[in-house]
Amino acid sequence: MMEPVFHERQRLELCAVHALNNLLQKPEITQQRAEEICRGLSPNTMINPHRSLLGTGNYDVNVIMVALQTLDYAAVWWDKRKSLESLVLSEIFGFILNIPSPISLGFLSLPITRKHWITVRQINGVYYNLDSKLKAPAKLGGPTELKQFLQDCISRGSCEVLLVVRKDVEEARLWINAEERAS
C-alpha cells in the first residue's frame, strides 16, 4: 500500500516552512525553528532581514538553506540558462521554487504579486507540486512532466529554482550530468 502524500497547507506567511515540510514529507520545521535560524543569521539586530517585520514568516532563502544544512541537505541554485536535460534527477531529492504569487483579498485578485515558496518532489515514483496554497498535492507525472513544469515556471520569469540534494551529492556535483560537470 502506498503512503499518502504529506501536504501542509498555507498559514500566515509560512510558505518557506511549509515548503520544507512538504519536501521532507513530515512536520520537521516549525515556525519557532525558523525564527531561531533567523536570529542565528542576524544576531544583535533589531529588525531581522530574513523574515517579515511582523513576525508572521515570509522567510528568505537563507533560512531555507540553513534549515536544509542542519538536515544534511544542500540547496543548489539552478542556472536557468542551462537546459533542464542536464539534470540527473535520480540524484535530486526535490525542488524548492520561489515563484510570483498573486495577492487576493477574498475573491478579489489584486494586480500585484509577492514571492512564494513551493516544493516539487517525487513520491512513490510520481512528481507532485506540493504548493501549500493548493487544496491538495497536484500530480505532475514523470520526468518529462516535471521538466515541463519547471520550464513553464522559469519561462514566466521572476522564478528561482533550488535543487535540494544530499551534501555528498552537492560536493561531487552529481546532480548535473558528467558533460556539464567537466565544463
| Count of spatially separate domains | 1
**Which assembly state applies to the chains in this document?**
single chain
Which range does the strand content fall in? 25-35%
DSSP summary: helix tally: 6
| Through-space gap between termini | 44 Å
Which architecture per CATH?
Alpha-Beta Complex
Look up the CATH topology. Answer: Cathepsin B, Chain A
Q: What is the H/E string? A: HHHEEEEEHEHH
What integer is the average pLDDT? 86
Major sheet, described briefly?
6 strands, antiparallel
Question: In words, what does this structure look like?
Answer:
The chain is α+β, with helices and mostly antiparallel strands and 183 residues long. The protein has one domain: Cathepsin B, Chain A, CATH 3.90.70.40. The chain is built from six helices and six strands, in the order H-H-H-E-E-E-E-E-H-E-H-H. Strands 1-6-2-3-4-5 form a six-stranded antiparallel sheet, with helices on both faces. A hairpin with a 2-residue loop joins strand 2 and strand 3. Helix 2 crosses helix 3 (61-70). The chain starts with 14 loop residues before the first helix and ends with a helix. The mean pLDDT is 86.
Structure characteristics:
alpha+beta, Cathepsin B, Chain A, 183 residues, 30% helix
Fold blueprint:
Blueprint: H1 15-24, H2 31-41, H3 61-70, E1 73-77, E2 94-105, E3 108-123, E4 126-129, E5 138-141, H4 143-155, E6 160-166, H5 167-172, H6 178-182
Antiparallel strand pairs: 1-6, 2-3, 2-6, 3-4, 4-5
